[in-house]
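In these records, each integer encodes one residue's backbone shape. Here is one protein:

___
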Amino acid sequence: MRRMTGGTFLLLLLPCLAYAQASSLSPATRAFVSVDAPVIALTNARVIDGTGRPVHTGQTLVIRDGLIQAVGDTRSVELPRDAEVIDLSGRSVLPGFVMLHEHMFYPAGRRAYNQQSYSFPRLYLAGGATTIRTAGSMVPYADLNLKRAIDAGEIPGPRMDVTSPYLNGPGLPILNVKALRGPDDARRMVTYWADEGVTSFKVYMQISRAELAAVIEEAHKRGTKVTGHLCSVTYWEAAELGIDNLEHGFFASTDFVDDKREDECPSGNAAIQSLLELEPDGPEFKALLHGLIEHGVALTSTLPVFETYTPGRPPVDDRVLDAMLPEARDQYLRTHARIAIQADSPWSRLFPKLMQLERAFALAGGLLVVGTDPTGYGGVVAGYSNLRAVELLVEAGFSPVEAISIATLNGARYLEMDDRLGTISVGKLADLVVVRGDPTTNIHDIENVELVFKDGIGYDSESLLASVVGTVGLR
């Protein structure tokens, strides 16, 4: 199923649209802009282009009217006379990240979630995420209006693929989430929210197969895709129904639970136990693996949120703590300390197992994309966690170049935007991340973000981060 985007028409308009956006930024947005010129030349850079190919050193990129006009060896690329020249010696340039499990809310505790329309857009952009999918909304009108404000240049932030409210059956103890009343109600929800402007749909744990089928059918009629954090429906059942994407790697798979009942979540830790006992080289897992790939189902890695539940993992660094509201910081630190001493936690084995299964999916030819899921108990903060997600992919066994490609090109492919972003290529939007150092030799250098270009406009990462200190959890 391909989304109808009018891509050819948009490509013709891209230079005009990028130029128009640059000239229409509000003073509030322009306060974070450090580079803005019709023609920009980034010289002497190390280029990690997002394709998975080896790094290129001594490169020059020319940006004109928001698009990449030239990429090549500094000795051979002719600098336009009118270019603003920026020497990037010692720096690496990556494509803007395309992150597919993000939210504009943050856990406040006791199953409450506060909308972060102020802090999260700035944090995502500061962390190099120039394009995100919200992967479920608690306050959908806030997300839709936020997207419109960002697109209009009124506030700084990433371009957004806005996902519907969670489409779920009865049984979830979160007051923000509606319980569907059957397949007809599911169709009504899809129709209503598609008309309101959402561009993706998210199904959740207690949905039935009949409701899921209705969502998929109706969404595909509208040219939109469906992703899911499942439980009551197995991955195999969802794939046969035509789902486009499954969230959280294999964590939400209930395919291997022996006494799994139709349209019901397994009780207790049965699903986790089944994954711990699963043999990655065994016939059951291989059958599911190849079935998902044959059905064209993408898988979203969300390792940052799972890391927070795993004893022995490091706490977030001081910059992340400083971004939090004091109450949010205290909540996070107390919970992290309690988890750290849980010697018998299944997460000590489950976390590396999930890494192993995700890598097996990618090696078999599956489309692995990545996101962060800023939920849990507050240890996953927008922007910072996007960089952590790439580091964790490397820990899972991917090379730095492979991990960066998963976080850029793969996400663009899923969104069907790879004709205009996701790699550093001539003719594509100048969505770029400039980092100090070389992430291909030390992946932690990816944290040293200095500049983030979106549509050819360079935003100062540190200024964006400084503007939200002490606000995460509040707004």
About this structure: Residues 1-16 have pLDDT under 50 and may be disordered. The first helix runs from residue 7 to 23.
